[in-house]
Amino acid sequence: MAEYHLTTPLADADVDQLKTGDVVFISGHIYTARDAAHKRLVEALDAGDALPFDLKGALIYYVGPSPAPPGRPIGSAGPTTSYRMDTYAPRLHSLGLKGSIGKGKRNDAVKAALKEYKAVYLGATGGAGALLSQRIADARVIAYEDLGPEAIRELTVKNFPLLVINDCHGGELYVKPNLG
Amino acid sequence: MKTISASDITDAVAAMCITANHELPADVQTAFETCHAAEEAPAAKEIFRQLLENSALSRETNLPLCQDTGLGVFFVEVGEDVQVTGGSLRQAINDGMIKGYKDGYLRKSSCDPFTRKNTGDNSPAIIHFDIVPGDALKICMMAKGGGSENMSRVTMLAPAQGWKGIKDFVVNRVAEAGPNPCPPTIVGIGIGGNFELAAVNSKKALMRALDDRHPDPGIAELEDELLDAINALGIGPMGLGGRTTSLGVKIMVAPCHLASLPLAVNIQCHSARHKEVIF
What we know:
The complex is a heterodimer of chains A (about 180) and B (about 280).
Chain A (H helix, E strand, L loop, with lengths): L2 E5 L4 H5 L6 E10 L2 H13 L11 E3 L27 H6 L4 E4 L5 H9 L3 E4 L5 H5 L2 E8 L8 E15 L14
Parallel strand pairs in A: 1-2, 2-3, 3-4, 4-5
Antiparallel strand pairs in A: 2-7, 5-7, 6-7
Chain B lengths: L1 E4 H17 L3 H13 L3 H19 L10 E9 L2 E4 L3 H15 L22 E7 L4 E8 L1 H4 L3 E5 L4 H16 L7 E8 L2 H10 L12 H15 L14 E9 L6 E8 L5 E5 L1
Parallel strand pairs in B: 1-3, 2-4, 7-8
Antiparallel strand pairs in B: 2-5, 5-10, 6-9, 7-9
Helix pairs in contact in B: 1-4, 2-3
């Protein structure tokens, strides 16, 4: 299993080389969005409005951080469970989104979209929110501030540690339960 | 009659909300250390290493263990000889939770189910009261995250399905949940009672320490049998494979209707945050 250091925005070639099980350290800007923000993003697309950030080459992090305590750019910031965004993800991939960061299984439609649009699903360690926040240098709300923890934030990350769960070649890292 | 002031209760609840979200219970911490040593798969070992580092960091800093600091769930045992002065007990607990989540920079995760609008202060606390003999007031708090709660289920089995039906349902539930609830999990199980009592008991069971043996040796054996079956699934920490899919199984049993075999499975993520205070 290989190790990669990548900087956003990602190009097709960045994603194409990644295989299930590889370790990826991401630097640059990533965007937070979870349930309510995804709903608004899709509503904006339906209305023909511009999105608050450029999807081309972008990575979305499924996270609702805890409030930033004094002296820190952000609170704890580990991944939320990804399947709840499955209904929105393929459309965003079709518009240039290169990857998502979360935890847990994706459905077949998302896996097909990863193949079709050359994108990747990356896993962060769930429940390690304090640890992961150490790799976030800056955070600023760029849209939907009224959503509180669900607002869209632009995060500046340095060597954010991730695992390739689903690659763009059909690979899947999660173990199939042994039901005997 | 013992009198306890509402403001003392509020202060104690605020403090326990903050502590619960920063300090893993000792039994869970010990389990991480044991599993870190026992796991052979590098990916599984690495997850435990990260969780131990995360635990140390959260203890030392103002960052909670997990960004999902949960809904505030309370199990309260009120002695019949306890009188709360200067306010109501329910209000005192709710105020304490609001204060703790605000002062502790904890996430507010409570929202309207239709509009999804955040209530803004994590209220209302979910409080289960029990009236008990005596003059003590015991408040147990659990910060319960949404990811593991979403993987939980209640079902009404037919009596003929018996233990095999229970075991199959629990193991299949954990298998289907896979990596989603942040394994290694703790599995709380309510057997018997009725529809709502099974659910409440499955959550109450999660308040028991991992090393707490069920007082009924027969039930304790069933807990062991289920834990072995769950860990044989091989899902492992964060679903990456390994020996540890769950750290423990805790069962709570209640008598049920002749027609029913209620069963509830409440899944707890590895960040098993709970705390208790006794007045």
